[in-house]
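Contributing new records

If you add data, match the layout below exactly. Sequence lines come first and carry their own label; structure lines follow with theirs. Keep one chain per record. Anything else will be rejected by the validation script.
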Amino acid sequence: VRKYAEAIRLFVAEQPVNYYGGSLHITISIGGTLGSPQSGESVTEALKRADNNLYKAKEDGRNRVFVK
């Protein structure tokens, strides 16, 4: 998950966005989590953990990936 999230983050950062004759560079932060149906955790719990990880990525300086 971390590898794919990092690839997406880098791809977005490398794409210039044309805006009113200029160029913007956009960055993103991604929060992710790992789990399996056998863990007994609900989808809602996993999504909440991923959301918390997104905020952790932003707190760590933005333009980051945090997966736990």
